[in-house]
Amino acid sequence: TATVLSDASDQQLREYQTSLRKLKNRASTDLQQNVYQNRTQFIKISKDAEKLNEDMRALRSHMSDLSASVSNLSANTVVPEARSSFENAAVRTRKQTNRSSVANLEQIYNNQLQTLWKEVEGSQKFLPAIPGRHVETEQRRWAELDAATWKPKQKVSLILLNDHLMVACEKSRNRVNPNTSSMAEAAQKVSTRLVAEKCWPLQDIDMLDLAPMGNARDKHEMANAISIRCGHESFTYQSERSSSTEKDKLLRKFRQTSEELRRLLRNDTDISTKNKKAMDFYSTRDPTIAKKTDLLRSLSNSNDRSEILIDVDGKQKNLRWVEGQIDELDIEVALQHFEDAVRIIEKLRKLAQGLKGNAMVQDLINTKIDGRASTLADLVVERLISTHSFSNATKTNIAWLVRLGFEDRARESFLIARSETITKRARQCIFEGDLRDYIFQVSFVYFTLMRNTSDVE
């Protein structure tokens, strides 16, 4: 460039400078347009991804409901067998659910646990009372098999709850009667008592049917056996009944209960994840919201922030519409389209004032708008300071600040800029020995600029 311009004239230098300015302005315009287009596409893709995530969550819920319905249909086709006291209580509970309140249902569940603690020694240590815990089914006449010899070790009962599986072994006690003389007659055997031995959460175990695993010789012997695996441990149990109905019923009930528990845990996880995403979404996008813990907590406790409806010109809109308006406002501020940005802020402020019955949304909109209005006011003040000598531009800038609610800031910035200009122009007056002429120059500068300042209405 130095070689090209070494022999250039003043006119060529001015033309070259003009062309460079045009290239700079064109590059700046192209950059703003690219930012606008990329931001618009990014916002659209983000909304599509969020909608797809909600659709996948709904599809997962429908698939779980379908699986539960198929399991219930299969259970209804089984020939009914004799039920234990826990299972009869569970059946009665389900029948009474439609005509009982939640409090009554919790009372019934509590009575089930009280009966379980009374009949199974040590069960309260494994299964304390929590809301919603209840017995699904209980089967006796099972035997625990030795892992090496496949011989019965002890008689057990399998008790399936909505969140745990407990194994209770049968133990008997002998009571001595002091009124008898013979030791053989004194020892009287009492009835067996169930003692809690093992208890696992349903999400930590797998229940396998061992019937298909046996060969032709011992297939008949293992037809009623199951294997329960928890981590690296494995336990084998066999039903004492000749029919495999009890085993099939237990397996089916276990799968159904485990699937329902997984669905509940998944829903809790989804809700927790959604709340965390909502907090991260607002706190990272608007740092001012991160300081308002009450507002973030309210947003997290709401079931679905996108379904909170507000009335806009007689039409129901959700928070996604508000986010779209905020995105449009950010774009207008970035492109320095001040009139459009001020218009959007006025529109959202008017909307927030009309939301008297929804304090959370009102606080959310006001928080978002106040931060962006302050940013916009900074840009307008810079424009006001740089163009305060032009009457029309000054009036326009002050009008924008007044509409944004920064009247005091507009007045202070304008007067400070004018004072600096008056001081600067007065210092440019040079005293050349004639005091009268110097005083006239300074007075002319002061009064002329003060008059021009007062002309701005």
Give the key terms.
elongated; eight-stranded mixed beta sheet; single chain; two-stranded antiparallel sheet; 14 helices; 457 residues; alpha+beta
Overall structural class, as computed from helix and strand content, comes to: alpha+beta
The mean pLDDT is: 76
Strand-residue fraction? 15-25%
Query: With helices defined by DSSP (H or I, 4 residues minimum), what is the helix count?
Result: 14
The CA-CA distance between the termini, in Å, is 50 Å
How would you characterize the overall build of this protein?
With 457 residues, this protein is α+β, with helices and mostly antiparallel strands. It contains 14 helices and twelve strands. The strands form three sheets. An eight-stranded mixed beta sheet has the order 1-7-4-3-2-10-9-8. A two-stranded antiparallel sheet has the order 5-6. A two-stranded antiparallel sheet has the order 11-12. α11 (359-386) runs parallel beside α13. It is elongated, with a radius of gyration of 41 Å. The two termini are 50 Å apart.
